[in-house]
Amino acid sequence: MAKNLVIVESPTKAKTISKFLSKEYQVESSFGHVRDLPKSKLGVDVDHNYVPDYVVPPRAKKVVTNLKTIAKKADLIYFATDEDREGEAISWHLAELLDTPEEKIKRIVFHEITETAIHEALKNPRGIDQHLVDAQQARRILDRLVGYELSPFLWKKVARGLSAGRVQSVAVRLLVEREREIQAFKPKEFWTIDALFSDPGDKSIEFEAKLSAIDGKPISKFTIKNERAAQEITDALKDAAYAVEAVDRKEMTKSPLPPFTTSTLQQEANRRLGFSAKQTMVLAQQLYEGVELGSGGPVGLITYMRTDSVNLASKFLSEAATYIASTFGQPYSSGPRGYRGKSKLAQEAHEAIRPTSVTNSPAHVKPYLDSRQFKLYQLIWQRAVASQMTEAKIDTTGIDISAAQTPYTFRATGSVIKFDGYLKVYPTATKENVLPPVKAHDAVELKKLDSNQHFTQPPARYSEAALVKTLEEYGIGRPSTYAPTIATIQERGYVEKVDRRLKPTDLAMVVNDLLVKHFPEIVDFEFTANLEDGFDKIAEGKKEWQKMLNDFYPSFHKQLEEKEETVSRDSVLSVREIGTDPKTHKPVFARMGRFGPFVQLGSKDDVEKPKFASLQKGQSIATITLQEALILLQLPRTLGADAEGNEITASVGRFGPYVKVGKKYVSIKNDDPYTITLERALELIAEAKDTQANKEIKTFAGSPIKVLNGRYGPYLTNGELNAKIPKDVKPESLTLQECEEIIKTTGKKPGMRRRGKK
């Protein structure tokens, strides 16, 4: 029997570690957090030093019972959870629940799941770091206080189901402010003069150049403001003779980038691979915890993926130098190269994200990974290896070309990679452009001259990569929070993705304006960053966690109570008047409601009830035009009548577009309610009737029980409870008594589905 118990968070991690340990060790998983604040109440005693009321969630009870049984028999218990604050807190909660004597508890940490790292960790155990635990508790409790108290305020003033949080609200503010910049943007015209030249000695060699100076002074973007100014320049240049005024040749070196931190990995995976921050972290977790590499069992392929550090272990540095020299040649090996992190946050692990073994090349592991795992692993491997390679050397050339008898000078630029260095492993967008070997005073021939109109572009919406970078620059959030924050603001309807960019919804605009006006601290960048610094000080033992909470909560709670009384729903849900309907002469408004943004024809003071229509995807309160609003207000459309004389209409409801006949609604997800014809509507209504008829397998006179066909096969219902029909029973053969018995023993309320293990 095993003498020692090792507890980790995930079964995959447990499986990988098990193969490195003898039979004296039993490795078990806690399946994540085993205690948390309750979902049904605040769970924090704000009147008595913010004591948290932790509970074991239902899904963890069986796991905890099992761990308690095993722990009683173990001589020593090793907590091997992740080395960040979250992992430290899981270990602490386990220690509290297992109620084990302190002398039996050992805490071990490691950056990678390899045999060497695990055995080294076992040789150097420590106690649970209470400062790290307190930092995690402070974050969890503060986030609970903000979310649990501010979210109901939003339900009353805006719409039910909304949420607010420290980091997510700041992220939404960034997106909203960028969207407002885009909406307010006014394009500005400018022109460029572009030329195509050739070498008279070899006319097949052509190269491009741009007008760069007038009277020897560099031109700016807006020097040529309009077509008239551009035309004057091209008229002066058409018949001019051209010669090389100067040639500028330089060798430029391009240094490799540091290995990945959590933030830079999320950014680069988003840019290069199109992965969301959440996808990246899920895949990285899989690579860290272990992947089956053939018969050898699971192998941890990368180091811990939540880190702010760009340091690399000396063992990896020496292995990388040897690998690079033997694989690519000595000129490609830079020797050990260190990096300094720019982040002031560095609170998590102490090493960058890298492969656990440089010899596990992407080609070697590819057969064992799925396509997404492979792409991410290849990116991590390339970046880490490239960081230890020599600089790329690039020859750059600039050619100035003057037009005789005019004040105008053109500039051509080119570059050629002289030595690829690290680019051999980690290619970047380094475009080569070869220029002819001309020298000063050489004549060149003008082949083509164009004046091109341009307009300035509005700032781009944030991509996930850009948002992570900005949050990090402001000092907001930590490696473990970027991905869940971005996922949450999308899930809550504050953000939608348009062309892989994050666009705030009208709901985000309304909620952000409410928070900025009435709770400015919650969405203040500096204030939020200072809170993060406070968590860091708690982790370092320089600050008491209860004091930090007390510095924030009383004033926040008082402010919230005041706003409950003084802020009205009408003042929050601002209304924009779009114009006047030319037919009815009634005003048309765009506004936010409990079920989302909509347009309204007429006002509540009119004798006739106002008409409403929801905005469609891609439309917003701030930009919708009168013409677009009037099209929306065409609904509900009367299409005609069926054979029985029942009116048929088409419209859009909370659950999408539909046609209505009498009191029955039929979904028309694949048809447009603005253009659907009566004939098509009748087809869909007939199909729905057939589906309904086929749904009923059997009914019983005088009883509400029915035998029905469902999405997952035949089932029984009595209107209140549903029950699956056993596989060996023919649905049509069931008697009323048999149905009653099945419902009595296995019936469940509709919508109650068993949740699988995570």
TrEMBL record:
Could you state one GO biological process linked to this protein?
Answer: DNA topological change
Show the PROSITE patterns listed in the entry: TOPO_IA_1, TOPO_IA_2, TOPRIM
Give all residue intervals belonging to the Topo IA-type catalytic domain: 129-560
The enzyme's E.C. designation:
5.6.2.1
Tell me where in this chain the Toprim domain is found: 3-113
Query: Which catalytic reaction applies to this protein?
Result: ATP-independent breakage of single-stranded DNA, followed by passage and rejoining
The site (Interaction with DNA) lies at 33, 139-140, 143, 148, 155, 306, 492
Q: Where is this region: Interaction with DNA?
A: 163-168
Record: active site: 304 (o-(5'-phospho-dna)-tyrosine intermediate)
The protein's GO terms of the molecular function aspect are: DNA binding; DNA topoisomerase type I (single strand cut, ATP-independent) activity; metal ion binding
Q: Which UniProt keywords apply?
A: DNA-binding, Isomerase, Magnesium, Metal-binding, Topoisomerase
Superkingdom in the source lineage: Bacteria
Pfam family, any one: Toprim
Q: Per the database entry, which stretches of residues form a coiled coil?
A: none
Q: Family assignment?
A: Belongs to the type IA topoisomerase family.
Job of this protein: Releases the supercoiling and torsional tension of DNA, which is introduced during the DNA replication and transcription, by transiently cleaving and rejoining one strand of the DNA duplex. Introduces a single-strand break via transesterification at a target site in duplex DNA. The scissile phosphodiester is attacked by the catalytic tyrosine of the enzyme, resulting in the formation of a DNA-(5'-phosphotyrosyl)-enzyme intermediate and the expulsion of a 3'-OH DNA strand. The free DNA strand then undergoes passage around the unbroken strand, thus removing DNA supercoils.
Self-association and partners: Monomer.
Any idea what this protein is called?
DNA topoisomerase 1
The organism of origin for this protein = Candidatus Buchananbacteria bacterium RIFCSPHIGHO2_01_FULL_47_11b
Q: Which gene encodes it?
A: topA
